[in-house]
Amino acid sequence: MALHQVHLHHHHHLQEQPGRSVHGPVSVTGQVLSWVADKVFLWSPVELLKLRAQLQTATRGSAGYLNPAGLAAQVLRQDGVAGLYRGFTLTVIRDVPSYAMYFWLYHDIAAALSPGIHPEEAPPATQVVAGGMAGVIAWLPIYPLDTLKTRLQAVTAADGRGKTWVHFAKELYAEAGARAFFRGVGPTLVRAFMMDGASFLGYTTTLRMLGGSGAGGSTASGNAASGSGNDSRE
């Protein structure tokens, strides 16, 4: 969630630039590069450790249980630093197109729900619904890649030696056909709707509480200040 707020802040900053649009190639490129930096330095290893923690059969306090630090040490011991980034290529392939269209979708949906109102100034219900729908639509087409990434990250480098993502894709398909790639999609989309909807609303609400406003409000304030200056000179 915290990393999500970083992307929202970058998005808001671009919206405040005169002549800049979330739909433009520079804006999309900036958002994607911001995401890649997060993935390279933090999020990919976190996803791997979270998965390994969920796969543990030992419970907290019992023999063999490993906390996050213990899991990280185990991965480093077995596979080295590269082990923390196992599945990173699939993560990039999964998320780059998703993040590239995420804000675009949000703005278009918010504009359709509340015409004539800047998306960051839209009513709370619009922000929640638009953010949630954008998250769901962005997630759905790349979900099979997430399933494949999870299968790849679940095994150590030694156990998966010589096996490419194509091998794991064939393995999944052999289990249940195309349906195997959509296991757990329902709860994931519900989570995406709730998290993305809450993220947009929480971010814009925080801006207002801190004395700022959405991009539209910032522009309006700037225009008002400019107009006031012209009046005083007259």
UniProtKB/TrEMBL annotation:
Record's keyword annotation contains Transferase: no
Membrane topology: Multi-pass membrane protein
InterPro entries from the UniProt entry: MCP, MCP_dom_sf, MCP_transmembrane, Mitochondrial_Carrier
Biased composition (Low complexity): 220-234
GO molecular function: transmembrane transporter activity
Stretches for region Disordered: 215-234
Alphabetized PANTHER family for the sequence: MITOCHONDRIAL BASIC AMINO ACIDS TRANSPORTER-RELATED, SLC (SOLUTE CARRIER) HOMOLOG
Protein name: Uncharacterized protein
Biological classification of the source: Eukaryota, Viridiplantae, Chlorophyta, core chlorophytes, Chlorophyceae
